[in-house]
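Quarterly update from the structural biology core.
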Amino acid sequence: MIRAALFSLALLATPAFAQEDHADEHHEEHEHEEHEEHEHEDGEHDEHLAEANGIRAIHAWANATDASSALVYVDIENTSADLVTLIGAETEIATSIEIVGLENTAGELTYTAIPALPIPAGADMVFAPNGLAIALTGLTTPLVEGEHFDLELEFDGFHLDLEVEIESATATQHSHAGHNH
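Predicted structure, tokenized:
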């Protein structure tokens, strides 16, 4: 029952996960497929933001762990005029990756695989604890707080490279969450 509800939720991209876009704040769209690091006014690059084809991935993070699996969280904004579908991800540090819907039942975290996640035009998808995540299994290296790793999001028709920050083992959000990009 829960699996069917999560799958339906993912396919419909309901308002529980989709929010109004920030088109006024983020009006500049990029129409290329390469990962782009943005520069601050002082010339420094912004590793917290990746952007391509009107899709913005902001504040990707994971908890530090020495276990064989981890969850990645990220905010994905679709500033384009088109529906896009997240169909997977890749990284060199895990043998298997899947998009999942998380559920915490009586303190036990379970998840259901989501084969494809449509993101409507103008919507934000928030991957966060007890919601959506990208599950990494078969980790080939421990995730150490303060370090980072590369992750490639696969959308229908293009890929988006981003850097995942490793937060403390007990973090419940990205340490830079809340500031603007």
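Residues 1-45, 177-181 have pLDDT under 50 and may be disordered.
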